[in-house]
């Protein structure tokens, strides 16, 4: 039998085209997937697990309301073991699996590697990815390392430190000696350097008497560092530590009976309140975009129901990452504006400059550098708070409201757009 080669070629082409169309149709009808790239093993596994619970809860609540474009949202957990190189591999795996969105937040060194991996992929391939950063706060990520495909939904470290130092200035009659202790990578290094400058710039009537950078996720006993704090005569500690590096630090401070005010970025959750308990009342401060008693202060009953339901679902942790709420809803708005969850460039354009009515007020994704601008709060541990933190019996009370126009900074971003 003589085979018609042209007919065979035509038939093969049609089969391939049909399969491609079928694949595209399936992708557009299936769930909208977000790769969650965080440590799910190792010393920061508790932090990764808490974030995963936040994202999956938000996805579930949004799916109950119809998802995005009628499609469910699916969170795909990927364990990066807190490794930048492993995270780069997981970005590639996400691309290979047809996932258009990746999210991460724990470790600015990891975030920097993801930005580079996403940019490299998007320059070379048609299958593009957007990086949604919910917690990595190194200012460089929205300055010299800014990217069209990277969006940060947390206030960067410069904004947080500006807020903390402004508040400390109002209390400088209670501050004489400041000790800085931070993790030894870009985030902690920035706080170490910038805080010393701010003491002078804001004319805070205090002296920096100690400045320590320690290895990230490697210290099991912080008592030698606490001894240095004690010997320095410090009455105030400033730290950007997170995860076990913060909870172990505050536990060591407490165990030593050290009477110091501690100003933190992340003192309100993920193990830290439980580590210090009622002894942290009036001395453990945090700067955040939200805390549970904000709802009590401002009458946010609907959002209050959201985090109460989360607590009922996961009694061992609290709803802590308000920025995940903002991130998920802003992504939904961008995709629905575009009308297509696969058009990554159009979705990125829809996200930049977006204003969103968050429960705490209007938040804006600044178009120039993709840094979120949002109201902020400084709060202190208080046994009379309505909601406790980490089942510790102690919650947080607002001591300073920072309006969005003050929770901002300048940017040197010179973004390359497609």
Automatic annotation (TrEMBL):
Keywords: Amino-acid transport, Signal, Transport
Domain Leucine-binding protein: 31-384
InterPro entries per record: BCAA_transport, Leu-bd, Leu_Ile_Val-bd, Peripla_BP_I
Signal peptide annotation: 1-27
Keyword Cell inner membrane in record: no
PANTHER family assigned to the protein according to its UniProt record, in alphabetical order: LEUCINE-SPECIFIC-BINDING PROTEIN, PERIPLASMIC BINDING PROTEIN OF ABC TRANSPORTER FOR NATURAL AMINO ACIDS
Family: Belongs to the leucine-binding protein family.
Protein name: Branched-chain amino acid ABC transporter substrate-binding protein
Species per Swiss-Prot/TrEMBL record: Marinobacter lacisalsi
